[in-house]
Amino acid sequence: MTSMATPLRTAGGIRRGDRSKRERVSVASTTILLLGALYCLFPVFWVLTASTKDGSELFSTFTLAPSTHLWDNIVQLTQYRDGLFWRWMLNTALYAGLGALVSTYVSALSGYVLAKFTFPGKSTVFKVLLMGVLVPGVILAIPQYFLMAQVGLTNTYWAVFLPQIISPYGIYLARIYTAASVPTDVIEAARTEGAGEMHIFSRIAMPMMLPGLVTIFLFQFVAVWNNFMLPYIMLGDDNLFPITVGLNGLLNQGATAPALYTLVITGALLSVIPLIVLFLLLQRFWRVDLAAGAVKA
Amino acid sequence: MRTSLRMRALASVAAAALLLSGCSAGAGGDGGGDNGGDSSGPVDLNYWAWAPNLDKVVDIWNTKNPDIHVTVNKQDGGDPAITKLLTAIKAGSGAPDMIQAEYQKIPTLVASDALADLSAVGANDIKDKFPDAVWNSVTLGGDAVYSIPQDTGPMMAYYREDILKANNLTVPTTWDEYAETARALHKADPKVYLGTFSANDAGWFTGLSQQAGASWWSIDGDAWGVDIDAEATNKVADYWGGLVEEGVIDNKPMYTPAWNKGLNDGTQAGWVSSVWAPGVLSGNAADTAGKWIAAPLPQWDASNPSDGNWGGSSTGVTTQSKHPKQAMEFITWLNTDPEAIQALIDTSGIYPAATEAAAGALTEPPAFFSNQPDFYDVAAKVAQTVAPFTYGPNVNVAYSAYNDEFAKAAQAKKKSAFLDAVGAMQEITTADLKKSGFTVK
């Protein structure tokens, strides 16, 4: 952002007084941002140090003093019930990764249709969709369970995968992005050239919407990742669990078994790594998107 | 006479259950489906359980019985599994064939029509393998058999022997002595407590009340009675409230990181727990192995020893199972066969309910208690003295009332607040029974 802002300001000609004023302000805001970062990163730091301790050190040594058992903990976690943890990671990748991908495609298609076509009942559909945005996913978990039970799909991958493909918020966003980034003239030109509707959508509209789609993907990825209730209710077989429900289970073993604190902490540490990587990789698109919006406004 | 009274009460429970579940019965209420159970060819059975490493025990069965393949789905503790099962029963599909059910959950499950009657598939043949009191809790005193006992949890007390010795104290045998020991220990070092009053563990308090002679529910004719606010429960609440008010017993809940820290650094020098405690201690405070001593619970009346139960569970077959006969065959093996019992003790670390079959297998103490060769002799002795107790159809409500009310009392550190909490539990539990459509006397 700074690289864009600076040339503009220089072109406008900034006097010395303005600059020093700006720097004072930035000291204050930098401090606030640093405090915010500290607030957010401290728990992560805690997880990092705690995951290096073994079971008895966890409750007896100084909180922030690291130890040397990180590798042992990872090995233990890997050995837990024959590598179940990594199965949970793969499941999460499937639910959140593939789920978000499919959901993004469905959202893009629906949003595109809502933005660029006129058909009877269009505004009703859009209003119902807007109402859907207001309903939190947690509330839907039980009704979704009953629906899945009717078709006999509870306790399967589909039970968690299917309900999360339709995202009213994603469709809503896609409609906005389509309206802003895909000119109707382009579509009409393509039609005149004889291109099919699906062809126009996938070859012309989708690439134009790409930054928006990345945003939808990230939103949906995080939404699926955070949706604890749905898999918690749907699944009885812990081979199908996503990482969140699995780790929760390790903590709630019932009164007669010890809670596996070190495994849960190490598991939490390992499970945030893919999230961090994902955000770092997709950050570029996100930034382009914000800038694009700013220029248009 | 008593039996017929109970049966009428159960009939009313079942009737209420039908009313409650009436709306969803159309979806898939094919019931027990015992007719389909005789089909030849291999069957697949699904089993929801949370006992550690139970899948390894089941593997032994699967290699020997290719015709009845059992898959264990590991669950989180007792409560979530039961909640999930009840949801699946309401939905009409999605329930497993078998479920691990704690004894206090059985009346709730029966009221929701979730458990199949196993007397039709020969459950009464193995009645003799289990102590009468335990068998009674899976039949609820009637003719039906809703579940087969797997393990029990007779309560025991655990102390840090080294810490007691260093303070010239001995293992208390009565609750008066326990209070004296707690005072002496806390006086010698104000950081150290002999134990804690846990407002998070309703099952723990229930066991202590059971020892004192309470039975929180009762069946009379076709009416349920709630007797939580009775003399025995109040005696227990008064005792612990007094110790907490005095400050010689901690008021923090168990199973928290802070409590774990106490077990590790010796500021929690004792634990009123149950026979399965070695597994928890070895997981949470591995470095203290060999420093503990297990003893019977302190007694109210030393000449008339009594005990309570905390934990323990059974194996039931759900009403959605299409193969109750094969399931019963597997359950019989799992809970009575010497090889299975041995595996349950060794790999799952449970204390089997089939006492005779278990006696031969329980010769060595748990590794964590290698300093106490007679560990299982102590356990067997106290298991004989477990007092009778009746659970009602809304144990979950009573337990969450315990959590809410006693959390406030433990925070207030006032004896009177503990007694108020018992009264509140009584009120909440009774009101809920009435609201759910049961006849309450």
Helix content of chain B: 40-55%
Number of helices of chain B: 18
Total E-strand runs of chain A: 0
State the order of secondary-structure elements of chain B, H for helix, E for strand.
Answer: HHEHEHEHHEHHHEEHHEHEEHHHHHH
Structural class of chain A: mainly alpha
Pfam families (chain B): SBP_bac_1 (PF01547)
Keywords (chain B): Signal
Protein name (chain B): Extracellular solute-binding protein
Organism (chain B): Cryobacterium tepidiphilum
Question: Overview of this structure, please?
Answer:
The complex is a heterodimer of chains A (297) and B (441). Chain A has helices spanning 2-12, 16-50, 55-60, 70-79, 84-116, 122-134, 137-150, 157-161, 168-181, 184-192, 197-226, 229-234, 243-251, 261-296. Chain A is 78% helix and 0% strand. Chain A has 297 residues and is an all-alpha fold. Chain A contains 14 helices and no strands. Chain A folds into two domains: 16-41; 73-296, MetI-like fold, CATH 1.10.3720.10. Chain B is of the alpha+beta class. Chain B is 46% helix and 13% strand. Chain B has 18 helices and nine strands. In chain B, strand 5 and strand 6 (223-226) form a beta hairpin. In chain B, helix 9 packs across helix 10 (231-246) and helix 10 (231-246) runs antiparallel to helix 18. Chain B is globular. Chain A binds chain B through residues 55-56, 58-60, 81, 142, 145-146, 148-150, 152, 154-155, 232-233, 236-238, 248-249, 252-261, and chain B through 27-28, 46, 48, 50, 52, 55, 71, 73-78, 80, 84, 87-88, 90-94, 96, 153, 201, 203-204, 255, 257, 260-261, 263-265, 274, 276, 279-287, 310-311, 350. Chain B: This is Extracellular solute-binding protein. Chain B: Residues 1-27 form the signal peptide.
Concise description?
The complex is a heterodimer of chains A (about 300) and B (about 450). Chain A has about 300 residues and is mainly α.
